[in-house]
Amino acid sequence: MAKSAEEMLSSREFRSLVSKRWTVSIILTALLFVVYYGYILLVAVDKPFLAQKVGESTTLGIPLGVLVIVLSWVLTVIYVIWANTSYDSEVKRLKEQL
Amino acid sequence: MQAAAEQAIKTTVGTPTVEAIIFFFFIVALTLAITYWAAKRTRTTKEFYAAGRSVSGLQNGFALSGDYMSAASFLGIAGLTSLKGYDGMIYAVGWLVGWPALMFLIAEPLRNLGKYTFADVVAFRLKQRPVRIASAIGGVITLLTYTIAQMVGSGSLIKLMFGIPYELAEIIVGAVMLAYVLFGGMIATTWVQIIKAVLLLFGVTLLTILVLAQFGFSPGELYSAVAAKYGQTALEPGSLVTSPIEAVSLGLALMFGLLGLPHILMRFYTVPDAKAARKSVLYATGFIGYFYCIIPIVGFGASVLVGRSVITGIDAGGNMAAPLLAELLGGTPFLGFIAAVAFATILAVVAGLTLAGASALSHDIYVNVVKHGEASEKEQVKVAKIATVIFGTCAVLLGILFKGQNVAYMVGLTFAIACSANFPALLLSIVWKKFTTQGAVWSILVGTAVSAGMIILSPTVWVDVLKNPQPIIGLRNPAIISMTLAFVAGWLVSLATQEKEAEAKFIDQKLRTYLGVGAE
Question: Residue B441: enclosing H or E segment and its boundaries?
Fold first, then answer.
């Protein structure tokens, strides 16, 4: 049974797809904010913290900077894994109902 | 003793060596051959603007990185790290974080809703003419400021590396770049970006390996050498970021500015669907993240092995740190390679900007405003090519006009306008049913005016460029205020001006945004 555009839009499944998509996006964006603005605010307000030595001369700021880049990338990986496994199959199913 | 040894280093930076010329001609010949091949496949608007939507996720990932990793960021961040130490690294981190945000917030809707430009998305269910005009204003200003920064930077860099006069360098860049875009459209531009991204990643990787080899492949030893030579402070945060508001404002501009750069957004229409768009951001984030992780090593390596006084002796801004390091570690052949790669980088970035500028002028303004969307395929391609020549010529003329000017603020201006003028309208049009034509127009205009106005009155322009004693606004980065005001303007004006037609079309838009139904 084919659904019209209006029926699809008001269907529970479509609405939950949209809300799930934005929930995932907003959580990941919030994590990105914590990671990056956390780092940049540390730079602004607590320089001695980043200046601590973790090696002979290496300061904590160096691995932390790299960590911000790596974590940002990991967040995009998480998004892609979620979208490939959960979102795409749901989209395919809903499209068939149209 | 040490200073004397540093001064004794001989360099061929600034004189065109045989190796540099060979690499240079090889890259230009290769890219022009690709352009010739692409020209036969560039007949329709879809091919000219969007490479026939045939670019794969991996290819677009390389091309996006190519568009984003400019010569300024390669040579500039290496130079900043070599002279200022850790502050260069803070800067490098900021350049990456927009990419995940681009993925989470707009990549897939943008791909599903648009055709050739981001204005297609904003104007999807709103009144075409006012929205197209406003989007083109925001888009073209963003592109022009970025182009000025790139052209002025490239003229000085080419002069430093090859000893070619500034004006001639501008004309060479303009002519080669126009050949790519005019004849090969997006197909040639994409391949130029891919080649450039691969060469750049390869060159910087090799440079990093050669640096680390000097320190027993231990970054810790490299940092110890930096600390021994310039003191522990070189590895600590310095004066780049001081006030928290300034820090957050700069971060917002870097993060959300990416989501409003027309030449980046345009690349999403070159892939077949939303899934490929998603993949391309994943690859691009990986490549760019890797690039910004290793660039500081090149900078630190240059400060130890080449020495700060030698670097500033050639260019006070430190831009020649990476080329000097390449010459020291790999001789003139490696210097020639790095110089040629930097040149290819400049060509590719300016080509991408020109194509995006041409699409705003021809697709948004000419076809959709002047001709009300009624233009034959042949006419559209012709107008796109005329617009390419206009934008390319402007790029060269502006480059020459701004010769010797301090254009460091131009990149900041680009990101501030992009995140304030283009991004809020784009996001609101995707997610908010009650967004109206008036709301979009006001959001874009307020974003443009406030961000540009605040930068002019800030220390960056008012004091550093216009030489006034006191800034009128203390904040260097306006994003925190200008982006907020653009959202508020879009929201308030939309509430005040209901648009039933636009709300009705939101049904189609939603199906297309989330399910890809009817996406081109």
Answer: helix B437-457
Round to whole Å and give the CA distance between B520 and B517. 9
Inspect the interface and report whether the beta carbons of B247 and A8 lie closer than 8 Å: no
Query: What is the predicted ipTM?
Result: 0.95
Inter-chain CB proximity B235 and A58 less than 8 Å = yes
Nearest CA in chain B to A8: B511
Pairwise CB contact (< 8 Å): B220 & A57: yes
* Segments making up each domain of chain A, as ranges: 14-97
* pTM, 2 dp: 0.93
Positive or negative torsion for Cα B102, B59, B322, B356:
negative
Angle at CA B475, nearest 5°, toward B470 and B481?
140
Q: Which domains does chain B have, with CATH numbers?
A: 2-515 (1.20.1730.10)
pLDDT along chain A (98 residues), means of 10: 80 92 96 96 91 91 96 97 94 88
Chain A nearest CA to B501, separation (Å): 16
Whole-number Å distance between alpha carbons of B386 and B361: 10
The closest CB to that of A76, out of B86, B94, B103, belongs to B103
> What is d(CA B209, CA B189) in angstroms, rounded to the nearest whole number?
30
Q: How far apart are CA B73 and CA B35, in angstroms?
A: 26
